Amino acid sequence: MKFAHLTTLGALALSTTAAHSGGWETGRLDTNFLYEDGNYVELSYGNLNYSVNGTTQAGVTHPMAKDQTRTSISGKFQLGNFDIGLTSFGSGAIQMDGQNAVTTQTSPSSPYAGTALVYSVVPSADVKLDTQAIMGRYSFNDNWSATVGLRQAKLKASKVTTLATTYAIDATRKTGMVYGLAYERPDIALKLEILRSESISVALTGGATVASGTLEVPEATTVNFQTGIAKDTLLMASAHKASWSQSQIVVVGANGAPNVGSDFSDTTNYSLGLGRKLSEDTAVSLTYSWEDGAGAASTSAFTMRDDMKALSVGVKHKIDAFTISAGVSYTKAGDVDVTYGPYTASYAGNSVTAFGLKVGYNF
Questions:
Q1: How far is CA 325 from CA 40, 84, 110, 352, in A?
Q2: For residue 113, is pLDDT > 90?
Q3: Hey, CA dihedral for 297, 332, 120, 169, is it positive or negative?
Q4: Among 276, 226, 289, CA closest to 11
């Protein structure tokens, strides 16, 4: 087993940032598979159980976030100094259930009319974004390599229901660049990688209730670092910064329907972990992650937390040409109060538990 590739253990599609604060990212472009020897393919599955409850101004407490599952598939071929890879994964989701947190089924005539105060400011939403990427990595020597590629953001047909109306959004897609640089010292399992993704602006349409709109996938910079610190022991760290303040969702309503939009803030997610090789075939890891929020008060109906803190454990075992990895993660979501006019939603004591499984094959 190649111990230097242990960094994937704590991540295994277990991103829990979908309890929205800064944005709606649920998966990140992972280039670790490009560093495997020879030809390689992997399949990942993740299950996220949300315990995210909000209490409305009417005193109704309701699970506002829906549980999620995620899958990804990646593979690459080695041609001399070139590694050519493909990956497909779920990169974004807004899956909320706020409109069931109401005490009447009669729609208000306006957002501030009489019985409207029993309604939830939190929308119900089923919005999913997938990313497919093709990347090439060129190794200049044993130490330096560069990666460049294209990623395509693919929005599935979606629906968002607010206290005003339901917006049906058509499926669409758009492409942007990704590039990076890495330095490695195999003798001490050291790797420093900087990966940059350009922003992608996706135009939105949607028939009777959506005249126009935009969805912005933010530009992002990820720094991944690891190094051996003792015999069979690896130190791992990462930082992921996304420019969400410049990457909002804006939907312009048609036929008199009001506009709806987000108010996301920039985020930086950090992680720090240790990996330990138990034998030639088995290794374990422990990772702590954290992210500052935008504050304990918000005016955005898509916000469900402030900061976050997460602890992940993982195990990786090799059987011949197969590698099986599993991990579990627990995330504590920071409390936040959402206010929009007379409507409120208070989130406190919430968490997300996730489990992930990955199978890799070298050939």
A1: 15, 23, 52, 20
A2: no
A3: positive
A4: 289
Residue linked to tokens 């530009």: 219
Report the amino acid identity of residue 241: K
Residues 194-243: tens digit of each pLDDT: 999 999 999 998 877 788 889 889 999 999 999 999 999 999 999 999 99
Domains of the chain: 3-362 (2.40.160.60)
3-state secondary structure the chain: CCHHHHHHHHCCCCCCCCCCCCCCECCCCCCHHHHCCCCEEEEEEEEEEEECEEEECCCCEEECECCEEEEEEEEEEEECCEEEEEEEEEEEEEEEEHHHCCCCCCCCCCCCCHHHHHCCCCCEEEEEEEEEEEEEEEECCCCEEEEEEEEEEEECCEEEECCCCEEEECCEEEEEEEEEEEEEEHHHCEEEEEEEECCEEEECCCCCCEEEEEEEECCEEEEEEEEEEECCEEEEEEEEEECHHHCCEEEEECCCCCCEECCCCCEEEEEEEEEEECCCCEEEEEEEEEECCCCCEECCCCCCCCCEEEEEEEEEEEECCEEEEEEEEEEEECCEEEEECCEEEEECCEEEEEEEEEEEEEC
The Cα 43–Cα 288 span in angstroms is: 24
Dist. CA 327–CA 316, nearest whole Å: 9
What pLDDT is stored for residue 103 in this prediction?
Answer: 63
- Which of 110, 116, 210, 222 lies closest to 160, judged by CA? 210
